[in-house]
Request: fold
Amino acid sequence: MSPRVRIVQLSPEALRALADGDLPTAAPLAPVPLTPWLVSAERIGTWRMRARQAVESPEDLPWITGIVRDEVAGLTVGAGGFHAAPDERGMVEAGYGVDPAYRRRGYARAVLESLMERARAEPSVSVLRLTISPDNEPSLALARQYPFVVVGEQWDEEDGLETIYELGV
Reply:
């Protein structure tokens, strides 16, 4: 059985503190417990982008990366959300990461399914996108279990070459 997760959105102030790698400042600003992995080298770039985005495009705030919680276990297990609010085409791009301490326990699947559910529930969304590095076999294997279609490739400044997958919702 897959764990049940909830994505908890953060305030611009909490995003800024995470972007600065300042966990002691971010912790009291967040509605759920934060973990050191959230300010690791693996995650800091995401918070920097999202903190800037929260100021420049406040309409994206309800959509962008938040904290992934397993409420049953009472654990903060990762980060996930969308890159932005739906674009003019109705497309949202999902992004997520699971703390290494909690990988291989079904959390990535639970987050992806939560994001798929949210996309399907939003009338303004018609397409869910994933972009995955060709070397990221765990993410590729997960995406292959759903009816995503390869629609191209792109070069990401942070992640390098990525395959673009889309799913009509």
